């Protein structure tokens, strides 16, 4: 397998709510992660790594990384951090994994803790930023400010960590304009990566109570796609790789009645990527009414993006052009991001 096609392998270890000093109004980590307990010990970490070793993805991976998700890692007791990181570091020494990733809060970062996690092989730190608007943070029960994020990213960079910012559009007090201000603030801070998770209403959360009382209205799916599309374009234009959009699907999250409202979709990231692609190629389409039938030739790897989820992209193009699409054919001599349109009937 060529190195170009090889992907990184992340071995996730979920520690739901562990170390969290606040209960955010939207959060139910047991549902989101599919893990009902947070008493994760070294044996569990080792077991997950051993299982990953047997996976075909392990052998094909470019690099292997253990990632601790779902809690505030740097808020854990030092002894517990050492236990979890120590077992992962042992696998680094053996050459079985390459590095460690953790997630934490912007206000739980300091010199001492960063020196400690660096000594165990932690290479990447993901920050739960959520918003750079202090009123949105306050109403969401985050317990930190935008200034904490500014300071944390600066400190992490000085210590040589790769960084990622997790962002949540659609929180109480948020809006399209406010969230794009958050995105612009993040582009200036320049983390290496970002994740965008539109807020959804999960049963048993304070946000669910607000929703039931009529005091909170979540984003619609179309609104979430629109805001994430614009956000993703701004971030990636600035060199920040958007590594995920939309919550991971887990059996517990998909149980009937678990998601009460909000822009949940099992292919949310694809919806956004398709929307971005369609926006980029719109200027290459014929004007409305200039043909009644058209054919499209394009790079094979981009056909699914043009088609969209359940052919919504095709329907959108047909509506804009007032023309029936008779075929979409692969033609790899056409550059990426370009299409060729054949006018079949005037």
Largest beta sheet, briefly?
A: 7 strands, parallel
Quick one: how many beta strands? 12
Task: Report how far apart the termini are.
Answer: 47 Å
Provide the number of structural domains.
2
Question: In the CATH scheme, what's the topology name of the largest domain?
Answer: TIM Barrel
CATH architecture of the largest domain: Alpha-Beta Barrel
CATH superfamily of the largest domain: Aldolase class I
Quaternary arrangement of the chains shown?
single chain
Structural class: alpha/beta
Secondary structure: helix percent: 25-40%
Q: Which CATH class of the largest domain applies here?
A: Alpha Beta
**Which shape, going by the Cα principal axes?**
globular
The fraction of residues assigned to DSSP E strands is 15-25%
Low-confidence stretches: none
Order of helices and strands: EHHHEHEHEHHEHEEHHEEHEHHEE
Strand order of the largest sheet: 1-2-3-4-5-6-8
Instruction: Report the mean per-residue pLDDT as an integer.
Output: 92
Number of DSSP helices? 13
* C-alpha Rg (nearest Å): 22 Å
List the defining traits of the structure above.
three-stranded mixed beta sheet; globular; 346 residues; 2 domains; alpha/beta; TIM Barrel; 13 helices; Hypothetical Protein Ychn, Chain: A; seven-stranded parallel beta sheet
Structural summary, described in words:
There is one protein chain. The protein is of the alpha/beta class. It folds into 2 domains: 9-266, Aldolase class I (TIM Barrel), CATH 3.20.20.70; 283-345, 3-Layer(aba) Sandwich (Hypothetical Protein Ychn, Chain: A), CATH 3.40.1260.20. The chain is 38% helix and 19% strand. The strands form 3 sheets. Strands 1-2-3-4-5-6-8 form a 7-stranded parallel beta sheet. Helix 2 runs parallel beside helix 4 (78-93), helix 8 (176-189) packs parallel to helix 10 (221-237) and helix 10 packs across helix 11. The N and C termini lie far apart (47 Å).
């Amino acid at each position: 397998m060529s190195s170009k096609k090889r992907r990184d392998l992340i071995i996730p270890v979920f520690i739901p709510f562990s170390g969290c000093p606040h209960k955010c109004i939207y959060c139910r980590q047991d549902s989101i992660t599919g893990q009902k307990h947070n008493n994760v010990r070294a044996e569990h970490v080792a077991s997950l790594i051993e299982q990953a070793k047997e996976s075909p993805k392990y052998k094909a991976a470019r690099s292997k990384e253990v990632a601790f998700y779902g809690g505030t890692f740097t808020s854990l007791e030092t002894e517990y951090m050492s236990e979890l990181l120590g077992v992962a570091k042992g696998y680094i020494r053996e050459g079985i994994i390459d590095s460690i990733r953790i997630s934490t809060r912007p206000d739980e970062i300091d010199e001492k803790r960063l020196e400690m996690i660096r000594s165990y092989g932690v290479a990447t730190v993901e920050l739960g930023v959520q918003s750079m608007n202090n009123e949105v943070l306050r109403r969401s029960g985050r317990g930190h400010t935008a200034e904490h994020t500014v300071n944390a990213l600066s400190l992490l960079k000085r210590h040589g960590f790769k960084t990622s910012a997790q962002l949540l559009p659609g929180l109480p007090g948020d809006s399209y304009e406010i969230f794009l201000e958050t995105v612009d603030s993040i582009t200036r801070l320049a983390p290496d990566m970002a994740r965008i998770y539109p807020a959804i209403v999960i049963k048993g959360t304070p946000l669910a109570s607000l929703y039931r009382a009529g005091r909170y209205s979540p984003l619609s799916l179309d609104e979430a796609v629109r805001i994430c599309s614009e956000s993703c374009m701004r971030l990636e234009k600035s060199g920040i790789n958007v590594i995920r959009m939309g919550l991971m699907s887990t059996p517990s999250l998909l149980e009937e009645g678990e998601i009460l409202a909000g822009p949940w979709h099992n292919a949310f990231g694809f919806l956004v990527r398709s929307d971005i692609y369609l926006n980029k190629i719109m200027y290459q389409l014929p004007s409305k009414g200039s043909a009644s039938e058209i054919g499209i030739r394009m790079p094979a790897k981009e056909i699914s993006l043009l088609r969209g989820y359940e052919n919504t992209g095709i329907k959108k193009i047909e509506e804009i052009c007032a023309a029936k699409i008779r075929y979409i054919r692969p033609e790899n001599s056409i550059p990426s991001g370009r299409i060729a349109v054949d006018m079949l009937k005037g």
